[in-house]
Amino acid sequence: MTDAYDVSKRQKELAQREWNLPEIEARFSRLVNQGIPEKTLNRETLAVEKEALLDRVQLRAEEYCYLMRNCAKSTATALMEEFGFGSLDIIKAMGPVPGISMSGGPCGPVTGGLITLGFYFADPDLLNHNATPAYLYGGEFVRRFESVFGSVNCPDIQQRLLGRYYDPMSSAENLKAFYGSAARENCPVAPGMGARIAAELILKSLKV
């Protein structure tokens, strides 16, 4: 596993990062106001820019998480922006996705990543039950995410990144403690790495 997936190292980097909120907000506002621009993906160009692309997707997922404080939305936003597909309506619908409404379910980058990959690999024929790419790439995505974090579930990811599980939606006290923790600086590690894994799988499907 490369340094890009070294969780502890990335946490230290994010703890020291100076988040340029005006620039992040301006970029996100353009997406909100103008929509996600469609792109034509060129394999040769993608091959040359592969590492820079992966670094950018990881960084932007972290930045959008810091901005929106929603790990599912940020994962999807970075991926859709980079590859030029999807819409803000899909991202809006991911509001309750992290931890399955913070009920202890899968971490937002997992569900947000799966929804994004599902949209990307969707068969035009919604009745085609033999369409397998979304299942295959989705399964690989889940396995790879789990190999990095040791789990796909929100409580375990919180334990890994924050040192404990806050269960923020269970009480006002827990929510206050969650917001008072270093969650805003540490949680972006997960969507960053989740988005990078998903981006690698999209490039793999394009044979890049």
Describe the structure.
The chain is globular and about 50 Å long. About 70% of the residues lie in helices and about 0% in strands. The protein is mainly alpha-helical. Helix 2 (about 20-35) packs across helix 3 (about 45-70), helix 3 (about 45-70) packs antiparallel against helix 4 (about 70-85) and helix 3 packs antiparallel against helix 12.
Q: Can I get a quick summary?
A:
This protein is an all-alpha fold. The protein is built from twelve helices and no strands. Helix 7 packs parallel to helix 12 and helix 8 packs antiparallel against helix 12.
Properties at a glance:
208 residues, mainly alpha, single chain
SS elements, strand count? 0
Helical percentage: 55-70%
- What percent strand? under 5%
String of helices and strands: HHHHHHHHHHHH
Total DSSP helices: 12
Low-pLDDT sequence parts:
none
Mean pLDDT across residues: 95
First-residue to last-residue Cα separation: 19 Å
Helix/strand structural class: mainly alpha
Please tell me how large the radius of gyration is: 17 Å
Overall geometry: globular
Q: How are the SSEs placed, and which strands pair?
A:
Elements: H1 7-16, H2 21-34, H3 43-68, H4 71-83, H5 88-92, H6 99-102, H7 108-120, H8 133-149, H9 154-162, H10 172-180, H11 183-186, H12 189-205
